[in-house]
Amino acid sequence: MANIKSAKKRVLVTEKKTLENKAVKSALKTQIKKFLAAVSTGDKEQATVLYPETVSAIDSAVTKGILHKNNAANKKAKLAKKLAAL
């Protein structure tokens, strides 16, 4: 454990931010799984409803610095391709 006050604070802040990032990442993965489940069952109606929500979640993760913008673009392109294939 750190001895300097500012170092102690950094440890606490980092732990808090890590938990927030994990929560956002987990929610993003869940949203993507929901969309992929709708696609795999062939439910086009459900998939078209979930697609904008999923893209929004990906964009939100980029804004919060959890995903890189190119990684997000890659994910969105793959999801769009799966939706178009239905």
Could you give a short description of this structure?
This protein has 86 residues and is an all-alpha fold.
Topology:
Blueprint: H1 5-41, H2 44-63, H3 69-85
Helix pairs in contact: 1-2, 2-3
Residue share in helix: over 70%
The overall pLDDT average reads 96
Number of DSSP E strands: 0
Helix/strand order = HHH
- Our Rg estimate from Cα atoms comes to 17 Å
Globular, elongated, flat, extended or rod-shaped: what is the shape?
Answer: elongated
Descriptive notes:
It contains three helices and no strands. It is mostly helical and 86 residues long. It has a domain at 37-86. The longest helix is centred in the N-terminal third of the chain and has 37 residues, at 5-41. It starts with a helix and ends with a helix.
